[in-house]
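re: the backbone from monday

yeah here it is again, tokenized this time
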């Protein structure tokens, strides 16, 4: 038998676990060519994402970049014709936002405080309400579908309708709130809810009523994903309702509740419709949240550069909790 030539030896399949270097040494890197790239791209399904990517760039990314650019310009009603070629203002818009008060005497720092207080209080109060409501309709009983539908009523009513209803309910002397609380002796019958320091609480109560079903929906979806066998076996082992809630239900609902709390907080923070429709123009100083401050600087005083600076600050504030949540979720997934 003659000895195998190098070419024939290379054609023999190697033994598993061994390594044979290909004939001619290691392969060289292929030079980049547009023709080769186009040919390989045609064989991939990723090109189907190209229209959605272009739409995302056009609808989302481009306005954000334009907003950032406008925040560095001195773009007012006198320089609006120049638009992109308006005088460069640097960081002065951001300085003016924190130092110069608005027409209501509210600075940007106070607007940020009002927005944080409004959104965090709404989330803290609606989270337990939504969780209790979800647990109350999780198990089967007669009329459960009707109760679930009633729970959703505040959520499906449009925000403009909710704000208009709240404007009627909180009217002084003739509103439902004044009549009920005044009849109980808790407040005066002629309390001004839509003006002065009580405006914040009128806004907060309206937001609580309209937004708690969101937490309810998220918690109900999480409850339905928990296997019923776990609850039944724990009940057979002698676990009470509180023990099942603490050791089985809440740990498995933690991720859902974290996401629900994050989304609800961001929604409260950026809620513009409620304040704008409920209080009219201009709103009380206690209700000047960041979206309202941005709107009046842009469309009442025509200081578009200052409004863009407030918008940039708002976007940064909204990005931070989202990044923290995604980072914590990623770390939790890696540890698991």
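seq for it, each position gets an aa:
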């Amino acid at each position: 038998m003659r000895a195998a030539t190098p070419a024939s030896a290379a054609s023999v399949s190697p033994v598993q676990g061994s390594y044979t270097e290909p004939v001619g040494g290691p392969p060289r890197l292929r030079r980049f060519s547009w023709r080769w790239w186009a040919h390989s791209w045609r064989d991939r399904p990723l090109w189907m994402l190209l229209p959605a990517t272009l739409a995302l760039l056009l609808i989302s990314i481009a306005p954000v970049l334009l907003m950032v650019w406008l925040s560095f310009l001195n773009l007012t009603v006198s320089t609006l014709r120049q638009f992109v070629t308006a005088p460069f203002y640097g960081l002065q818009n951001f300085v003016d936002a924190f130092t110069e008060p608005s027409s209501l005497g509210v600075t940007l720092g106070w607007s940020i405080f009002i927005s944080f207080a409004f959104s965090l209080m709404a989330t803290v109060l609606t989270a337990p309400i939504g969780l209790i409501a979800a647990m109350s309709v999780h198990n089967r009983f007669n009329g459960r579908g009707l109760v679930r539908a009633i729970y959703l009523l505040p959520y499906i009513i449009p925000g403009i309708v909710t704000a208009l209803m709240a404007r009627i309910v909180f009217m002084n002397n003739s509103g439902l709130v004044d009549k009920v609380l005044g009849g109980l002796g808790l407040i005066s019958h002629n309390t001004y809810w839509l003006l002065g320091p009580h405006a914040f609480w009128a806004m907060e109560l309206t937001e609580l009523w309209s937004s708690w079903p969101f937490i309810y929906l998220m918690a109900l979806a999480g409850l339905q994903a928990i296997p019923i066998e776990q609850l039944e076996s724990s009940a057979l082992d002698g676990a009470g309702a509180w023990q099942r809630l603490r050791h089985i239900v809440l740990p498995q609902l933690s991720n859902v509740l974290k996401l629900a709390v994050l989304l609800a907080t961001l929604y409260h923070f950026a809620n513009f419709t409620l304040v704008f429709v409920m209080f009219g123009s201009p709103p009380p100083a206690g209700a000047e949240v960041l979206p309202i401050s941005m709107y009046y600087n842009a469309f009442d005083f025509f200081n578009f550069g200052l409004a863009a600076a407030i918008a940039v600050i708002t976007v940064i504030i909204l990005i931070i909790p989202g990044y923290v949540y995604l980072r914590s979720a990623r770390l939790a997934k890696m540890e698991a």
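The chain has one domain: 51-335. Confidence is low (pLDDT under 50) at residues 1-19.
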